[in-house]
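This protein record is not my work; I was only asked to verify it. Would you go through it and say whether the fold makes sense for this chain? Here is the record exactly as it was handed to me.
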Amino acid sequence: MAKKSDITTKGLERATHRALYYSMGLLPEDLEKPIIGVVNAQNETMPGHRHLDIIARAVKEGIIAAGGTPIEFPTIGICDGIAQGNYGMHYPLASRELIADSVECMMNGHSFDAMVMIPDCDKITPGMIIAAARLDVPTIICSGGVMATGCMDGEKVGYTDLMEASGLVQRGIKTNEWLSELEQRALPGCGACNLLGTANSMNFLTEALGLCLPGATLPAMSGMKLAVAKRTGMQIMELWKKGITAKQILNEKAVHNALVVDMAIGGSSNTMLHFAAICNEAGIPFSFDEVERIAAITPHLVKLKPSGPHYPADFDNAGGVTALMARLKEYGLIEDNLTVTGKTVYENIEGHVVKDEDVIRTKETAYSLTGGLKILYGNLATEGAVCKKAGVVPEMLKHTGPARVFDQEEPAVKAIYNGEIKPGDVVVIRYEGPKGGPGMREMLTPTSAIIGMGLGSSVALITDGRFSGATRGAAIGHVSPEAAEGGLIAFVKDGDSISIDIEAGVVTLNVPEEEIEKRKIGWEPHKPPVKPGSYLDRYSKMVSSAMSGAVFKRNW
């Protein structure tokens, strides 16, 4: 493959360019080699990224060993957990576009030949995949790995236990001292948090896409993860030599495989946002009708926390994504396609077997014969909404109840903890969409409050915001059109009857049309809490709906 970096290193007129590289300790012979961008999202804001400098070092060692010159540069990464439940949560989804843009700026600004991208947490992985699709150079993603499972009083614990602990203390079931010990034991070290949140969902699905070497489920602080990182550095040189670019791998077959795996594991509802955005960037057709078709034929074989009893480490011990895909291939659900290994999917998964039949089940023992995510429509969501069906208890798959309406998250959380929400209610949180939030905040805090207050089997929540992969319960998000765009959710009132049928994929406001039309008279949207001219202000003006991936509109 021709060296794009020659633009900056060859010719008499590039003396200053070469001198700049030499000033940083590079040798003339280093500039004769392909220059590989190592995009490292390492920072000290979250456990998933705290250790990525170690991963990056191993990647660079691999690049050097295989005859390349690595040049490392950073991108941002926000911790959804720390941003959770406060103003900071306006930023994580919005940061996805900044991440993609920053990679584009650095790669094109310096004319690098290929890249290895190192993420681990929620919006960083999809942001980097979007950048891979946009730049279409040889690319491999190497995530930071999975956090170990915590232990307290001889029992496994993790992030899920923390989410619901506040409600247990509030109800007097547990003490503050118990909570303090749990806080220190549930998350024992670096890595993507120990549940099937958006971070692990997207990292596992990156392997299903074929954009990383097998091993997305490996422990963050293991020698095996470092070995994969080093091999990643070596393999990027092979992709460059063979001229294999990102979009030769990221195609319709890759997306099909990833959606099948997503349904089989019951991944985060946020994956729907990210796949829509990735396909938009890559020019790949994407429709929720196709998502529903795949969901209808894919058995739900894996249930990780918070939806089930197992942890990500258990999934890895059972064989991980590779073994799961081998099983799904047996059912005729996986398509063959090129991957970053230089081999096809079928070659990668050949000979891999499930090592724990309880963690990765069969069709005969599946949790469900349909996938773990569900798309809903109805007068409340004419463009669609998303529910993580895998996390809904059977008695809440169908529910009708009175609406309890809140403009934004904070008053809803206060009402839940104050005991104002009663069994049978349908909590409606609006003006939290991509435009109205802005930034489409996660409603993990209110859903965790509902579970912690003992209402998980009797109360539903509907929002134009989104959910963490950590959410469980009858939670319906991504409602589109959102309230800020004049969607019907903007005109719901306290006491209105709302019906939900998750299996049928329907969410309905049971109010006569003539009454709705009266409510629309003189309506003005809630003003988003942003400073004029800020990034969030610009984002709110440019962003599209959740069901189109919350990408920037291209007609502005």
Notes: DSSP finds 22 helices and 14 strands in the chain. Residues 223-242 form the longest helix (20 residues).
